[in-house]
């Protein structure tokens, strides 16, 4: 009797149900009578090991069937993923289900367990240990960066204090100099006036004597001097210093002083083949250069240049004021020129994930794809005119369109040529974008936000992937007297937004929450329009009047 069974259960042959079988197959974990053992060994497709029953090795504990209490579950239903007995097999529930031997399932699960155990021990666990070991280093780096930040902050404060002290000393010196000049002037005037006072007092005494005199000759010889003495005394106007100052604007002062940018601290995670194919790891944090650096300029030879988009880190597509689209490399060589199919001027360019060129033709209301120099219409609009566009990380296409009457503007998302989303109003039903057909460059941020540079609206409008309004950036508050006129727009690996402020000849760098970070205004930019950023975070700027694309480095 099998020691794993209760006293009421009698071990029987697995094949013929004969009680108290003499043999046991250690391969299949089955009890066999002598007749069935010979038949069992005749199976040439499996290496069976039949031994006397008492010499059998330890076998799995077959679970009792919950529905048929006197039966053991010797089978497994793959669809239901539960053990079943032979009586369960005949029920309707498991009809047409795939049934396997429970021992086979047991052995398969054992293999899976061994495989996963090996993977955990040899791969996953060491990777987690390695990552855990980097945490003390990260903590030390964090402490060092915080100390450096504090030092820089104190240094910045001391620099500003020195500047303020210098201004105070300059104004104080000017005040002291003015006081000395005015005092010398008053001293001179005091002497002059005192001489006049003495002269007038002497004349008064003389006239008093004459008025009492009876000397006819003396009185007759008097000549009037009143005209000379009645002239007004000298003007004593002096410049008294008066201190006037503007009210301190905390926001402007904070902006002048500097701001704290919280850069993500990332851990280099090991490759994981089971990770989602679409997931992107966080990029390593990058620090700004103290001053952006001009690298080179590419002359496109357009009379007016409007757009630039990256095909790769060393190739760019551009469009200007004619019907030609040009491909240049960073060696300033012209690689390709393509004329639009309609011979109309293209309004904007974009490059797909597969490297195809897209352009909008508002004059025939189309978006077109260029593949191997062949041009095919991708989308045609009715009642709407396509303007600016961008290709997203998911392969979708975002197109800014305005109505035929120029009264409405919206962003439309396409998957291929199928429209899947309209973005036009905020939660209050108000229009997100200014109407009319002026330029509204568009791009997708790394966090899937949609960013639109609204030229007429004088703002950068940002919505999330679902089209809900996140924020509107209307320019830096410092200096506040300048009007923000955004045209080109791009984003970088840090999810920061770069907007071309064309008439102020600079680029605004904005955090993905709408905070102003800095200007790029030291590279002799003049009327910057189109922007794009390559995978190395180099900024490419299309200057309208020069026809040049300037490449600028702004990260360390």
Automatic annotation (TrEMBL):
SUPFAM superfamilies: B-box zinc-binding domain, NHL repeat. The keyword Hydrolase does not apply. InterPro entries: 6-blade_b-propeller_TolB-like, NHL_repeat, TRIM45/56/19-like, Znf_B-box. NHL repeats lie at residues 486-513. It comes from the Eukaryota. Gene3D superfamilies: Classic Zinc Finger, TolB, C-terminal domain. Residues 8-53, 65-102 form the B box-type domain. GO terms for molecular function: zinc ion binding. Keywords: Metal-binding, Repeat, Zinc, Zinc-finger. SMART domains: BBOX. PANTHER family: BONUS, ISOFORM C-RELATED (PTHR25462), MEIOTIC P26, ISOFORM F (PTHR25462:SF296). This is B box-type domain-containing protein. It comes from Magallana gigas.
